[in-house]
Amino acid sequence: MRIRFINFTSIFIFVFLGLGLFNLEVIQGRRFKDLSNKNCIRLIPQMGARGNIFDRNNNIIVDNSLSYDVMIMPGDESKINKEILNASDILDIDPKGLKDTYRTNLIAPFAPIAIAKNINIKKAIVLEESKLDLDLSDIIIQPQPQRRYPYASLACHLLGYLNEIDHWRLTKLADYGYEKKDIVGFGGIEEKYDYYLRQEEGGLSLEVDHRGRSVRLLGFRPPKSGEDIQLTLDLKLQKIVEDSMGSRKGSIIIMDPYSGEIIAMASSPNFNPSLFINKDSGYIAGLLGNTDASLINRSISSAYPAGSIFKLIVATAALETGKINLSTSFYCPGSIHIGKQEFSCWDTHNQQNLKGAITHSCNVFFYRTGLLLGAQLIHDYALKFGLSKPAGIDLPYETGGFIPQPLWKRIYKFQNWYDGDTVNFAIGQGYLLVTPLQMARMIAVFANNGHLVTPYIVKSIGGRDTSVYQKKITHISLKDSTVAYIREALRNVVVDPNGTANILSTLPVSVAGKTGTAQVHQGQPHAWFIGFFPFKNPKFAICVFIEHGGSGYFSCVLTKQIIEAMIKEELI
Predict the structure, then answer these.
(1) What does the DSSP 8-state code read for residue 42?
(2) Which helix (H) or strand (E) holds 170?
(3) In 385-522, where does DSSP find H-type helix?
(4) Residues 6+ apart with CB under 8 A from 522
(5) Distance (Å, rounded) from C-alpha 149 to C-alpha 288?
(6) How many CB atoms lie within 10 A of CB 294?
(7) CB 117: neighbour CB atoms within 10 A?
(8) Which of 54, 339, 550, 571 would staple 566 via disulfide (CB 3.0–4.6 Å)?
(9) What does the alpha-carbon distance between residue 289 and residue 246 come to, in Å, rounded to a whole number?
(10) By three-state DSSP, how is residue 122 classified?
């Protein structure tokens, strides 16, 4: 009986062991083989460089510098902790922080983990040289291209900045190969052309022994750098306009009136995109919490009342529809009454024709002209000049502004449209909102004799000329006589001793343009100047906008400084 029991127990043990071996070798064999392969394979990533950005003269605006990341291969926890402790002394970083980073970013046993980024080259060399002495065999010093903005805040709103992809972008871009923790563009060229600028990761696949030492190279995929982009921007002129703007809030745009190329575009206040690369949390928090809205590109993403520069559209509409002619004149006593409401002019201009009204920016003339036209015609001609919709520039987050009409007020405000609304509309006030870029585009119509251009900023991608696809020019059906007359009136604004932009008459280059002083509910009015130069053969259309800058005169002062600097730098 005892022998039978022993035999039975022995058979049971051997059957149990056999089944266990069968499970390990057959049922779970593939799983354990995969785990074994993972333990002996190491993937060393190698990053390509993001594409460079150049100005129109092939000067570097944005490029990449070489930085160094400290990476560690996953392994035995006690060994990893010891290596992190030794490395922390050289890096001068709290070892607890390094350990937390290691645990947070641990993905797989074959993928190295970055525990410290962007260390300086001296620390990288010391760490590499200390590998043998301090037993840092799992530590890898990985060179990484890092985005560099050599001109700090210059053209920052045009360029944008880089940051880790957020949830909103990831949901939209996951199908295009974007993943969590990818670094992507936010705003400007960096975002709009991220697909072309972004690099592709490559790397080495190594077989290692049980101590993690390299045995042989299994494979190599070279990294791919992003494509370079050339802009229409002139770096020298961009610096001039930003220096001129100084600490003021606002926007300055200089554009080719015939092609729509943006030669300079400044928005103020600005920011330094390099500090997003360096993850300066204090600076970033300050930007996000700042009421000055420094991250917003005021040239395209903010809309403002136009003030008197809108009178050019009213003048065009009135001439084109025959509501007035070149001999029409109105008397300006300093104000008019519409019902019980008094609408004032900024001065008493007496008898004024259209040229005089544009030259002296007479409100009363345009009150009366606006009443002759009616709000709907003013609205329709504003749309002809591309208002109430984005201008179409190849930058993200452009707003279209707003052009009101009587039907809109009835539907959305449940109110009738009154003559008081019309006279306000006729001088660029009331519900009307425009962007500085729309106003630069509008003045270009009079510079190029009746064509509405689509502004653009990218000239070529990867050496391929894209301007062929960017140039979109629409002919506005205007009489030649209308355009010519308003052109002469715009020149008169400068040369007439009482013209609102007479300060520009002393420049050695002939300028034509229109000032605007846009009233707001709180604070000083906004100051506008739009114009073009040289007058006979215009090369530049300009819009200078100062938020709460006071009278349009102050925008003229700024315009004069810019043109003088352009002459000095031989840009004209």
Answers:
(1) E
(2) helix 167-173
(3) 406-412, 419-426, 436-447, 467-470, 480-495
(4) none
(5) 20
(6) 20
(7) 16
(8) 571
(9) 22
(10) helix
* Both tokens assigned to 79: 């060994």
Q: How far apart are CA 32 and CA 23, in angstroms?
A: 11
Which tokens in the block code for residue 12? 């049971």
- CA-wise closest residue to 392 among 456, 479, 321, 302: 456
Number of Cβ atoms within 10 Å of the Cβ of 30: 9
Report whether pLDDT(6) > 90.
Answer: no
Cβ neighbours of residue 204 closer than 8 Å, sequence gap 6 or more: 43, 44, 46, 217, 219, 220
Give the residue among 504, 511, 386, 484 at the shortest CA–CA distance from 441.
386
pTM for the model stands at 0.86
83: buried, middle or exposed (CB in 10 Å: 19+, 13-18, 0-12)? Answer: buried
d(C-alpha 218, C-alpha 260), whole Å = 52
445 burial type by CB count under 10 A (0-12 exposed, 13-18 middle, 19+ buried)? buried
pLDDT in tens, 13-38: 766 666 666 665 666 556 545 544 44
Whole-angstrom distance, CA of residue 535 vs CA of residue 491: 7
State the DSSP H helix or E strand holding residue 530, giving kind and residue range, or none if neither: strand 526-533
Q: Could you give the CA distance from residue 76 to residue 9 in angstroms, rounded to a whole number? A: 39
User: What is the greatest pairwise CA distance in the chain?
Assistant: 134
The SS3 of residue 380 is helix
Which parts of 232-292 fold into alpha helices (H)?
Answer: 235-245, 274-277, 281-288
How much is the pLDDT for 325?
95
Residue 349, both tokens? 């201009």
Report the alpha-carbon angle 475-446-316, nearest 5: 85
CA 254 distance to own-chain centroid? 17
Neighbours of 347 (CB within 10 A): 14
pLDDT in tens, 470-480: 888 999 999 99
| DSSP bridge pairs for 532 | 512, 541
Which of helix, strand or coil describes residue 264?
strand
> What gap in Å lies between CA 386 and CA 438, rounded to an integer?
7
Six-digit token string for 64: 């990449």
Torsion of CA 2, 3, 6, 12, to 10 degrees: -120
